């Protein structure tokens, strides 16, 4: 389950494996999760990931971590994890969070979370966190996969490369193409 | 794995099970998938589902079907299945289809599908089908879950009940709130 | 999850993987499922498979498709899928279908299926489809594995290479060896 | 994971669960696997099963045992386990064993096993054991499921209740209906 | 996946499920993880668990959290999680951590972790954390199960109810029974 | 799923796979499980393993076997299997067996097993077997993994390489360091 530089190394799940005798403690280690991420961006938030790409020993283990930083009014915008449920706890500040369940209810569940509160975002559902406080907020979250993936709705729908045609998106969202174009221009 | 009317029946995965001796062939049967769905709606498309809700014998079986009808210019708008990969084949007409991979590439893969063509939409990824022909189109698709779920991006993000606040969505999509309000009004 | 020609490529489940940046839409595509299979054989049926061997992007996805063609009186003879449940729908014609549950009941469940009917054959159970109509029949079926396997009972028991000894089969089926020999001669 | 007599007991996988405080060692216990099964039957073999039906504590545990007794010339006839791989070891005597792989190879793998030999029959494949010695033989086998199921090919194909029509079986095995009828009469 | 008070409620994995229409945000919520646990005990450590027992919405989700507090010289003594891998990050202070791999290597991997460091303890392996600093330490850890279980080696081996006989433990640890008795007296 | 000598062979789960056409019956075979293991050691017991390391065809199959020999008063000392449940049956002699459930109950379940008795040790729990008879005892056990792993508590805690510091173990077991040192000296 451990990273090799040899391109012909044994691999599991597409990630290379060390021979057991070559494994070292460092293969299970990562450092720096106490460092605030840079939130000077449009969304005012930043996600630091600690998954199998950072810790080779996580391969096949079915769990990973992220740290999320939020400036005041910072948003971790609506997104999904295609292969994981998320459980999040607030380390600092306060967050307004929510998720939306599947069709046809599309019911929104929300909660204001303060320090020490925990909330669960079930696998594959659209969810978001918003810093509704006046200070920075910090959350730590765990995901039920070593490689959970993340799909930010805005980026996937309006910012894909190449773009989804504005004809299609205008129909999907039932608005004029110029509105779609305006949104696409942001991504 | 079979439906009971007794509320205290044995259940697996939250679905009731019949005693093996009470199982009948009808527990594995559904009829009507040859019937065109009604596409006289804003999207010009219709999905008929055949999963564990329709066929109790599918419980724990990890597979289900859908039929999708498309009027000319009909769209099965961008959506995800939180618990399933989809494999689709075109029975009639022609479709322009696509999916977008996870952050940060957000790469769009598209293909024009004609009768007999098959395409795969991997689990949890945003995907769509658009009838780019002048006649009705029909597709049949299989999903790798008896209860795959579906999240239509527009409905989940702009049409949830209650609504996600327009402050949050304006920030997420980097546009004015009045644009968000206009989109929300469509759902 | 995508096919490579390099024999030293990264592999998952024994199938090679492309580097994400080299993936193309064609890795998720197959064409020709609208083409009738050739049913001029002893059984009067033909199965066209669309699984991980045809679509490399299906690897790890847990689903695949088949098209089955039946001449009048054509039979998809008793068989099992060792790694998948099957859900089948009739596109044209009419089929008499059935499956047998495990020991010791060995109960047979049957149904006549017409166009648009759907039926489920649970994982590993012996099942068959017979065209009981006067025209060709066509079915499309999905399986809960990208590599479901198929074991045709006749071929496996009476047509293996080398043969199972007729002493053993005579005992298993409680008939004279010359009857076994006659059946084996057909395979 | 433990048996309750209350019909409204909590259940997992359709089997009832005891409250943890009511569990006793007996819930994980079975006795009598040293007793020879009665092999005075047509096949000259007998299978004693120890799975979740006998040991409630096996529920969700993914493993079970069987003891198989064979008279001289006794046969455990061709069968499959729809939900399990089997690993067998010979305790007494000698066995000629085999399994057949999936279409289209249908290759037969065989081996003569003596005391202390071990052989693996992969999930869902047709396999058999035949006592090729002059004394009784005994095997112990483990299966990778607490509820593996067993499908004896002869019973499922020629002895189902009701019978599969002899028209269908005559076509499947490419022989006259009277041969099918003769085989069906044995089951 | 949500808690019901009705004893006859639908249950999954032995945990009751609410009907989807009765689910509320509180079913995915827990509060208090910012509160230091009481470390005035022999080990000088305390574990606060947030799993399916605290958050009913975690059922089937495959992930949970714990907070661990350590007094100076506090120890989270050698233990295993029978159903989960653990990924831990240090929120405050410094920890000396380690795990031991399976027989026959029994190799010990250790690391000193400071604030922001992350370490992985693979499923089922014996591991520990020791506060090697002069201040309190705090860690947050995620586990790859909604119900991971914990087996503290000392409690299980020397503190079970009833006790494992000192004959057996004296043999297991190759020391006199009076030493075993002395250890057992501590639990 | 079959062993190759070519270091660049296709691999699944880190084990090499043969091309299907190169597979032979020997890839599913092991011999010698009738041979008594050597119990002239401190514990008076011996475990012979038959897993994926001995039978390459077991890869991905989720099951394996062990034979355990016990001299009179022989002990298979407290241990866990991190990735498997065990089901054991007594072939000869008599065993006193037990397992301890998770915190905080740490309840010990025990049973005396005679020839033909079967007992289950759930995944990851500490368990042991002791020959309480005057003759040799022999057990055969199956495990729900092709690679179950084994962690002997004494070896992992007191015999790791390098050693866990006696400060830590003295605290964990609440005894003087000289007692820990004495135990460590045995391993």
Automatic annotation (TrEMBL), chains A, B, C, D, E, F:
Signal peptide: none
Domain Cupin type-1: residue ranges: 31-181
InterPro entries in the cross-refs: Cupin_1 (IPR006045), Germin (IPR001929), Germin_Mn-BS (IPR019780), RmlC-like_jellyroll (IPR014710), RmlC_Cupin_sf (IPR011051)
SMART domains the UniProt entry points to: Cupin_1 (SM00835)
Compartments it resides in: Secreted, Extracellular space, Apoplast
GO terms under cellular component: apoplast
GO molecular function: manganese ion binding
Family note: Belongs to the germin family.
Subunit structure, as described in the record: Oligomer (believed to be a pentamer but probably hexamer).
Protein name: Germin-like protein
Species assigned in the record: Oryza nivara
């Amino acid at each position: 389950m451990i990273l090799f530089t040899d391109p012909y190394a044994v691999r599991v799940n597409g990630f290379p494996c060390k021979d057991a005798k070559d494994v070292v403690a460092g293969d299970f280690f990562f450092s720096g999760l106490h460092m605030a991420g840079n939130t000077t961006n449009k969304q005012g938030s930043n996600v630091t990931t600690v998954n199998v790409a950072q810790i080779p020993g996580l391969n096949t283990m079915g769990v990973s971590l992220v740290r999320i930083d939020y400036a005041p009014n910072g948003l971790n915008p609506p997104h999904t994890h295609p292969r994981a449920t998320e459980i999040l706890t607030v380390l600092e500040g306060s967050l307004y969070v929510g998720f939306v369940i599947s069709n046809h209810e599309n019911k929104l569940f929300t909660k204001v979370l303060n320090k020490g509160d925990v909330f669960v975002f079930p696998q594959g559902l659209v969810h978001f966190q918003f810093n509704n406080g006046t200070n920075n907020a910090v959350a730590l979250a765990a995901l039920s996969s070593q490689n959970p993936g993340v799909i930010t709705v805005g980026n996937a729908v309006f910012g894909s490369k190449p773009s989804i045609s504005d004809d299609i998106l205008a129909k999907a969202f039932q608005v004029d193409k110029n509105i779609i174009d305006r949104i696409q221009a942001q991504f």
